């Protein structure tokens, strides 16, 4: 089973709202990722967690706050977003992030976010 | 730095014909190459990957890809296209290098299979 689940599927929020995206995997993977994807574009890496610790933050604005409560869960907390943050937010997981970098990343279905 | 190029934004093919989606890469070190497919309003689905060994890699849904080191290419192929193969395809690379462990995606190729 290579399933990564994400909730909610769709989210509409105002610029003053606080919301959270949730991602879950039960494959025993120790690396989890958040990506942002605009329409017809490739995913852009936002954050990488390795063994529940934040290992990469790709200069993402502080209005996005990731959290990894345990090895199966990954959250993305959203606050004071801008309309340009509207996008598909994808979660992914892999066994690890170490060398050699041959591990496959498995993606969830995404959360489509609209910021008004 | 590592990079991936998908030179065609759009590929159209008739159902039943063979299809090829092109990908070239640039890395320092040994490449690990991946193909993903994305259907409308869905996440990315893993199709296949090249790590080492046989240059012809077989994947899901009848897709295969050929690794060509001299041409630094990893083209995706299928002998007989289906209308249901219509989707957005991404090639991605990771290099065996401590400084660039993350996936680098190509710009994507929209495949349309015409009935």
Short key terms for the protein model shown above:
heterodimer; A: 116 residues; mainly beta; seven-stranded mixed sheet; four-stranded antiparallel sheet; 0% helix; 55% strand; B: 115 residues; six-stranded mixed sheet; 12 strands; globular
Summarize the structure.
With 116 residues, chain A is mainly beta. Helix content of chain A is 0%, strand content 55%.
Explain what you see:
- The complex is a heterodimer of chains A (116) and B (115).
- Chain A is mainly beta.
- Chain A contains no helices and eleven strands.
- The N and C termini of chain A lie far apart (37 Å).
- The model of chain B has no long low-confidence stretch (mean pLDDT 92).
- The N and C termini of chain B lie far apart (41 Å).
- Chains A and B meet through strand 10 of A and strand 5, strand 6 and strand 10 of B.
Q: Would you tell me the overall average pLDDT of chain B?
A: 92
Radius of gyration of chain A: 13 Å
- The assigned structural class of chain B equals mainly beta
Helix content of chain B: under 10%
Largest sheet of chain B: 6 strands, mixed
For the largest interface, the chains and their residue counts are: A-B, 26 and 26 residues
Quaternary organisation:
heterodimer
Map the helices and strands.
The complex is a heterodimer of chains A (116) and B (115).
Chain A: E1 4-7, E2 10-13, E3 18-25, E4 31-37, E5 44-50, E6 53-57, E7 64-70, E8 73-79, E9 87-94, E10 106-107, E11 111-115
Parallel strand pairs in A: 2-11
Antiparallel strand pairs in A: 1-3, 3-8, 4-5, 4-9, 5-6, 7-8, 9-10, 9-11
Chain B: E1 3-5, E2 10-14, E3 19-21, E4 24-26, E5 31-38, E6 44-50, E7 56-58, E8 64-68, E9 73-78, E10 87-95, E11 104-105, E12 109-114
Parallel strand pairs in B: 2-12
Antiparallel strand pairs in B: 1-4, 3-9, 5-6, 5-10, 7-8, 8-9, 10-11, 10-12
């Amino acid at each position: 089973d290579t399933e990564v689940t994400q909730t909610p599927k769709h989210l509409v929020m105002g610029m003053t709202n606080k919301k959270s995206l949730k991602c879950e995997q039960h494959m025993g993977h120790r690396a989890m990722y958040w990506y942002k994807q605009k329409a017809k574009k490739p995913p852009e890496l936002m954050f990488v967690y390795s063994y529940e610790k934040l290992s990469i933050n790709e200069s993402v604005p502080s209005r996005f706050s990731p959290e990894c409560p345990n090895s199966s869960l990954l959250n993305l907390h959203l606050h004071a977003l801008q309309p340009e943050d509207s996008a598909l937010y994808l979660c992914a997981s892999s066994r690890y992030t170490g060398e050699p970098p041959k591990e496959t990343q498995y993606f969830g279905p995404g959360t489509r976010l609209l910021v008004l | 730095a590592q990079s991936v190029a998908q030179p065609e934004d759009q590929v159209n093919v008739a159902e039943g014909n063979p299809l090829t989606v092109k990908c070239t890469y640039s890395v320092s070190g040994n490449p690990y190459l991946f193909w993903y497919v994305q259907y409308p309003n869905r996440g990315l689905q893993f199709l296949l990957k090249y790590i080492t060994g046989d240059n012809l890699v077989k994947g899901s849904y009848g897709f295969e890809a050929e690794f060509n080191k001299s041409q630094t290419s990893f083209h995706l192929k299928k002998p007989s296209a289906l209308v249901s193969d219509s989707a957005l395809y991404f090639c991605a690379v990771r290099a065996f290098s401590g400084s660039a462990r993350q996936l680098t995606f190509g710009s994507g190729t929209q495949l349309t299979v015409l009935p």
